Amino acid sequence: MIATPVMIVCGLLASGAPARAQSQDDGPCSNQTLRAITDSPSKLILPAPGVTIPIRGVHMTHFDGNGKLTQVDSIILNGSPISDGTPVTGTYHVNANCTGTILLLPSTGGL
Question: 14-46 b/e with 16+ CB inside 10 Å = b?
Answer without folding.
Answer: eeeeeeeeeeeeeeebbbbbbbebeeeeeeeee
